[in-house]
Amino acid sequence: MKTRTIETEDAVTLAPADGQVHAAVIWLHGLGADGHDFVPLIPELTLPADARIRFVFPHAPVRPVTLNGGYAMRAWYDIKSLTPAGRDDEDGLQETAARIEAYIARERVLGVPADRILLAGFSQGGAAVLHAGLRHDEALAGILALSCYLPLRAQLADAAAEANRSTPILMCHGRDDTVVALQFGEQSRDVLLAAGYAVEFRQYPMAHSLCPAEIADIAGWLRRRLLT
User: Of 226, 35, 62, which is closest to residue 122 (Cα–Cα)?
Assistant: First the structure.
C-alpha cells in the first residue's frame, strides 16, 4: 500500500498516496510512547498495493502517572497500580473515549462510514479502544486490542452500546508479559465472551511486545475486516 505521511500536533496519519479512502484504522499507542510508535508496523502488514486505508495514530496527552511517581508522560489515563482496580481511572478513560469519538467523527466527515472504521490499540491504548469501542453507538468494523485488558468491566453491562454487540474483537497477548499479565487478558476475554461478544483471543511466546506470528495474524484479520 503506497502512503503519504501527514504530521499534525495531535496525530501521525498514513493515508493512501492518492485517490479515495475506503476505510480507516484509529490506532492508539501504549503508555509513554507516542503516535509514531506503530507507524513502522504498517509496511510489515503487507497490505495490497490498492488498499485504500487511512491509518491514524493519535498522540496521547502528557499527564502525571501515579504509578511512575507522578512523572508526566504521554498517557491515555492515569495508572495508580498494576492491579485491575489501580488501572481503572474512570475520568481519564472517559476523556480518552471522547478523543476517540472525535477521531471517529472526523473520519465520518471525511466520508468513511462507521462500519469501515476500526479501532486498534496496544497496552493502555488497547484498553482505551475496548472501553470506547464497546460504548460507541454505531457499528464499527472491529476492535483490535493488543497486550491489554478490559477496564471498568463491572460497568460494561450498563454502559455498552447495542450497536457493537456483534463487532469482531481480536485480542492478542504474550504469555511472558510482565507488564500486563496474561491472566488479565484472559479474564477480560472471559468477561466479553460471557456477555456475548465475538472475541478471538490469541497468545504468543513473547513479552509485552509484538512478534512476527502476531503481526501476520493482525494482517490477516485486518484484511478480512476491511478488504473483503
Answer: 35
